[in-house]
Design brief:
Number of strands: 2
Helix content: 55-70%
Radius of gyration: 28 Å
Order of helices and strands: HHHHHHHHHEE
Largest sheet: 2 strands, antiparallel
CATH architecture: Alpha Horseshoe
Structural class: mainly alpha
Strand order of the largest sheet: 1-2
Shape: elongated
């Protein structure tokens, strides 16, 4: 028989701990969740995380610009401030009406990737909103040229900017939906309030 060192106490498992494990094991689900549990399941910590940029784009399509901005910000923590994330954050800020922040972010995106027509288009939308029509026309022309005229959204935005620059008095009263674009096939519409 082993002898206990002097001054040490024997380890006694508290009775409440034994009872808790015993009751958990006796419940219908055992140690796992019951199928008739009324509560939502918790997160699956072993699952692969969904890309924050993709989550942000889905939120943009749903018109949830604040949540999209948060998703893009979280994605920036993982991936850094890539041109796509900068452009996405700028587009979310545009949806929120934060034109100064949107312009700054989109200018950084086109500086980082000057051959990306979608970022140029979105910068043009911000410039139209800010009343910088002449510069917006140049930006849309650059986006149109980089895109080889393939995007309907960029072409429509260019047409609107040209019409507005030629006759700003008649165009300002029209309701216009500006088309933001992203890499891939999705377009986001930013509707101008009256």
């Amino acid at each position: 028989m082993r002898r206990r060192p002097e001054g040490s106490r024997p380890r006694i498992v508290p009775l409440t701990l034994i009872l808790a494990f015993g009751l958990a094991a006796c419940s219908p689900g055992g140690f796992s969740r019951s199928k008739d549990d009324p509560f939502a399941p918790g997160p699956d910590l072993r699952a692969e995380a969904v890309d924050g940029v993709e989550v942000g784009h889905r939120l943009m399509q749903a018109g949830q610009y604040e949540l999209a901005l948060q998703a893009f910000t979280r994605a920036a923590l993982d991936q850094g401030l890539t041109p796509e994330i900068l452009s996405s954050m700028g587009s979310a800020n545009l949806g929120l009406g934060r034109l100064g922040q949107a312009e700054s972010l989109l200018r950084r995106a086109v500086d980082a990737d000057p051959e990306w027509p979608e970022a140029w288009n979105n910068l043009g939308v911000v410039l139209i909103e800010r009343g910088k029509t002449a510069e917006a026309v140049q930006i849309f022309q650059k986006a149109f040229a980089l895109d080889n005229g393939e995007s309907d959204a960029i072409r429509d935005n260019l047409r609107f900017a040209l019409a507005k620059s030629e006759n700003p008095d008649n165009i300002t009263t029209l309701e216009q939906e500006y088309k933001l674009v992203r890499r891939g096939s999705s377009d986001f519409l930013i509707q101008r309030d009256g």
